[in-house]
Amino acid sequence: MTLEGKPTANRAASTTHAAPSEVTEQELQSKLFRLAILLATALSTIDEATPPAALPSGSKLPSSESFVRLSEQLHNDLVQLFNLAQKTATNLTLALKPSRNALAAAPASSGASISPIGGLDAASLTAASAQLDTFSSEVLPKLAFLARKAAGEAHIFVRAAPRELSQGEKDERTRLEKEVTAMGGRIVDPFEATPPAKVPGLGLGLNLTKAIRHHVRDVMESVAGLCTSLMDANTLKVVHQAAAARARADGVRNGPNATQSPPLSAMEGRKKALEATAKVWAACDQATKELPTSNREVVLKKWKEREEVMEDGWNELREGAGVDDAQAERDRESAAMRQPGRDHTTSSSRTNAVDLPLDESDPFAALQNLKLDDDEAAKAARFVPLIKLGRFLHGTLGRLLKSALSRQQDQSVLDYDELHLLGERMLEAQDDLVAALLYGEQELGNGLDLEEGDEQEAEEEAIEDGGASGTEGENSDEEQATTLSGAVNIYVKIALQLVHESGVDALLEHAESAALAPKASSASHQTAVKNVRICVEEMSKLGKSLAEQSEADG
């Protein structure tokens, strides 16, 4: 039996136990419209910020192992749904496949659009309707539910415990409550206004939930593309009007543009449907292959990517300073002999260097040709060892995290989301320092403002993070440096915070006490921790020296 015409439709329809009533073309267009609305709602839902779980004070906390099991279960369920989405998309496209005779008999394009599903028999339309039902009842709601479930379990917070009041305080509170209630108000206890505290090591992790949301969104958007490829002109028009109304309700000034148009021929319609099906398969394949199983996996992958970016910045500084690796070590040894107060050329003397004829096709061409003079190169060379130490420190910590014995054992010790945040801030601090050395200190404090999408994402992260700060005092380090010495201090301070948050000593102690810890693993941990300690000492001393020299140079 071939996969042409009615036999295909009958076979696809036979997957249901009871023979469904026949569906007309107009009814199928209505189902496509309802599915488009469901997709738009689901996409909007998974993009909304999800408040984290906040437990009352004194509650019994779930174990870290329970979240390991939850992440594995989410991974398995999502992969099954991605596979089901692929299968359903294929069955839908096959059910709506016109016969060879129908394609051959179709009239040539006359400039007017046609319905992509026009001319199909009732059995084919009925089989396609069953696949749309699978999307609307099995695939999409479950994908949205799992994405929201993951977001709600990203972190675990505990509310502050109320302070025990003395009898006199209770009497005074009762009196105040009566007065305030009589005026229509309400007394708020201090502990109620205190943000809940995040429990380190508990929850699925913010980076994992972001990865889940990213892949779920990609699959949903590809399914939406498949649905619109099957719509006629009237359905597309109504869908666009509904999207514009939703945009206005959400306060979006410029709503979505109508980019999808109905085909002009049966052959073009079939081509669009096949292309849309291929996109569903590609999105599901990518999601299945790249979907992580743990927050640790996501953070370590980003850690490796960040190492490469940090290496690029270090190489850029070395090349700009005109030194190789061995020369950088010699410059580090002679840096202490350099006498402050010498008439050095500062960054301000190079402000006219960027005032070169600009190539409108490449606005950064002038910066690419910018060269340091001898004094500036010598000054930049003094900082190369500091950046090298920072790179080595970051890389060693990454290897320590990667060699942790198991997720269950290190999950209760490490906060991978906080480690990722500090790692990103260390990269930003390195970029600021390198830019100041190569292009002048005027580059400091010129950070770009967040775009509208970035602001929304930052607000959502704040909600998902419970409105509580992570590391104590971290907000004070996010100020932008305005001097070279300030940039050095921030870079070193963030590096030390990263070491502290990584808990290398606690992780080493945990590994040595574990029953399954091999001696080789314990020895490698000891060596890595020793290297980290050396980096910390050297960065602290060198950073202090460079900051003092920068202040003396003016």
TrEMBL record:
GO terms for cellular component: nucleus. Residues 1-23, 319-354, 452-480 are annotated as: Disordered. Residues 452-464 have a biased composition (Acidic residues). It holds the Pfam family GCIP_N. It comes from the Eukaryota. Residues 319-345 have a biased composition (Basic and acidic residues). Residues 204-319 form the Cyclin-D1-binding protein 1-like N-terminal domain. InterPro entries: GCIP-like (IPR026907), GCIP-like_N (IPR049317). Coiled coil: none annotated. This is Cyclin-D1-binding protein 1-like N-terminal domain-containing protein.
